[in-house]
Amino acid sequence: MPFTLRGYRFCNEAKRCYFCRRNLIVTTQKSSMRIDIVTVLPELLESPLGHSIIHRSQKKGLAEIVVHPLRNYTHDNRKTVDDYAYGPDAGMVMKIQPIFECFQELQAERTYDEIIYTSPDGEPLTQQLANHLSTKKNLLILCGHYKGIDHRIRENMITREISIGDYVLSGGELAAAVIVDSVVRLIPGVLSDETSALTDSFQDDLLAPPVYTRPAEFNGWKVPDILLSGNFGEIEKWQHQQAVERTKQLRPNLLNRKDE
Ligand code: SAH
Fold first, then answer.
1. CA-to-CA dists, residue 98 to 69, 95, 138, angstroms
2. What is the CA radius of gyration of the chain?
3. Separation of CA 197 and ligand 1 centre (Å)
4. How many Å separate Cα 18 from the centre of its chain?
5. pLDDT computed for residue 205 by the predictor
């Protein structure tokens, strides 16, 4: 039976982390997830959502991702979604009314586990947060534009604000695509065994070890002998050492991170 720990869904049958032998969050249970994205620029999401793993997850019925053009919820001929900011600063702000009506319509259809606003001042997107979101059933993501959205929406309707990094983008669509990609690939059954998310960087707070493929030698550059040895125990040990070494060198802060 699956069980929940610190908000993550574990499963007794879950595959074990190949470094530390702990059960990680990915369950063997197949379940589907619904993600609604609200945007003024749906075209920006067509390509990221229409290819590769995200596309396949939808074809396999493991994820349903629906994009809602915010202008459909306006009532004027020009389909206005923004207005001048109060105060002395120049710039436009996304209006409450279309967002409110869109959310009301969606919330009448289902209950959302999280209503997310993409925002540079939100909590940073990490692997732990992606793991956590991947255990949810229904997510709603609002992409901001211009100077952002009327703050009353943030205060009254948004349950979580997420930033994809300390820099400012022109709109929330790319951020939404990054969040969706990092989450959807964790849904059991989306990745094949070969590309299992369990061995990726940041799972277990370690960077991934280096990887190689054939030929064993190219241009005088050799694959490490150990990988050709066929001794899987020794190979796993080497990979673990490499992971720890690379983490120490490149991201030592990860090694000191306490479990959230
Ligand atoms: N004036 C705002 C930035 C607005 S940028 C500020 O200084 O905080 C326009 C929109 O792009 C934002 O509303 C947000 O939805 C999105 N965005 C910009 N940078 C982002 C980031 N780092 N992470 C997530 N979303 C971001």
1. 10, 7, 21
2. 21
3. 28
4. 22
5. 85
pLDDT (tens digit per residue) in 48-74 = 999 999 999 999 999 999 999 999 999
Annotate 199-215 with b (16+ C-beta within 10 A) or e (fewer). Answer: bbbbbbbbbbbeeeeee
Pocket test for ligand 1, best of 169, 170, 181 (most atoms within 8 A of CB): 169
Q: How many CA atoms lie within 13 A of 41 on its CB side?
A: 16
> Would you say the CB of residue 145 lies under 6 angstroms from ligand 1?
yes
The per-residue pLDDT for 203 is 77
Q: Measuring CA to CA, how many Å separate 152 from each of 18, 70, 157?
A: 46, 17, 8
Q: Does 234 contact ligand 1 (Cβ within 6 A)?
A: no
Parallel/antiparallel/unpaired status of strands 33-39 and 92-94: unpaired
Q: What is the DSSP letter of 114?
A: E
* SS3 state of residue 101: helix
**What gap in Å lies between CA 32 and CA 135, rounded to an integer?**
10
Is pTM, for the whole model, over 0.85?
Answer: yes
Closest CA to 14 of 102, 112, 135, 108: 135
Judge contact between 179 and 141, C-beta under 8 A: yes
Question: Which token pair is 111?
Answer: 């209950």
Q: What single letter denotes the amino acid at residue 260?
A: E
Q: Which residue has the tokens 């994809």?
A: 164
User: Any idea how long the chain is?
Assistant: 260
- High-pLDDT (> 70) share of the chain, %: 86
CA dihedral 193, 137, 258, 158 (to 10 degrees): 140
Condensed to tens digits (0 to 9), the pLDDT of residues 208-248 reads 999 999 999 999 999 999 999 999 999 999 999 999 999 99
